[in-house]
Amino acid sequence: MSAVLNSTDGTKGCVEREDAATSGCHDEFDDNFEPGLFLCRDYVCYEFSFDQYGVKQRLMSLPSKQTDYDLTGQIIWPASHTMCYMILANSHLFNSRRVLELGAGAGLPGLLATRFAKEVVLTDGQEEIIPLLNLNATTYAYTEQRTERGSSTGSPSRSTSSAAPRPPCAVHVLPLQWGYKTAVKAVRPLQPKSFDVVMGSDIVFWPEAIRPLLETIEYFLSANGVAIISYINRCDLVHRQFFDMLADFGFIAEHVCMSTFLPEHFPVSPHAYLLKITRRVGVSPRPKIGKKGSLKQNRSIDGIASYANRQISNSGRHRMGLE
Distance between the two ends of the chain, CA-based, in angstroms? Predict the structure, then answer.
């Protein structure tokens, strides 16, 4: 594993860290290991312009080539851009709503949603990402007063004499491990627990994360709420597993036509998906999130996961909130 270091003269160097098992370190040293010492935090302020909506959004993140191998939340993933355009084109879905973002990473879509929502809760499963998410939330969340508006434009209106302004969006940042009851308790103080919108970008990635992801959505999504998931299909088996489990959880997935709101020359992967997920009418909710045992899978799913695990990089595990 390598770590990028900044020297006093501003140049960068690379230092190699030996594995404890081969360097002769004693086991007790593992208890005192601080992963933060090896994180690259050379964050850069980026400004994302959504010209057709007259909106600009700033945040701090790493250039893609600098992210740590298992901290993918430090960069902006392609599906996040699609999610941002989805938010701007459908602002009526977010107006005065409670919004939960899963696997937020640097938090680009969630920050954009603060222009419309009543409350936005940004979460990520990797605690080392939380300081970055906190920095972006406190510095770049939309803090001006807004007035209610429809979906025809993406930029929130300034207050006028004919419409009472709404207060700025309440923004919270929390670590959230998917599928674990102890982690879900961290969000419970934010009452009510249900959210009108649950969203995530590039979070359908690791086979072991599909079930806890859907358990988390099922737990937090309100009865009439909508989950919006944007992702790139990087493994057909994981993709099929996700859709099979959607049905098992009593969800209905609607494919959203991205060409209706993306800019004309916006680069879209042929493997890109944007889904609106709702509860199937008349289907009883599944049992609530359990402990680690909730990750049990049947044999067919185990086979899919075993095969997919050999095809997908380990870089997705920590972003999905799996240990």
Answer: 18
Amino acid (one-letter) located at 291? K
Look at strands 55-61 and 44-50 and give their pairing.
Answer: antiparallel
Using left for φ > 0, alpha for ψ between -120 and 50, and beta otherwise, residue 179 falls in: left
Q: What is the CA radius of gyration of the chain?
A: 20
Show the tokens assigned to 256. Answer: 């959203």
Q: Are strands 119-124 and 98-102 parallel, antiparallel or unpaired?
A: parallel
Tens-digit pLDDT profile for residues 91-136: 999 999 999 999 999 999 999 999 999 999 999 988 888 999 999 9
Backbone angles phi, psi at 288, to 5 degrees: -70, 170
Task: Tell me the mean pLDDT in the region 14-25.
Answer: 38
- If DSSP states are collapsed to H, E and C, what string results for 173-237? EEECCCCCHHHHCCCCCCCCCCEEEEEEECCCCCHHHHHHHHHHHHHHEEEEEEEEEEEECCCHH
pLDDT at residue 26, as a whole number:
42
Q: What is the pLDDT at residue 11?
A: 33
Domains and CATH numbers, the chain: 42-319 (3.40.50.150)
pTM: 0.73
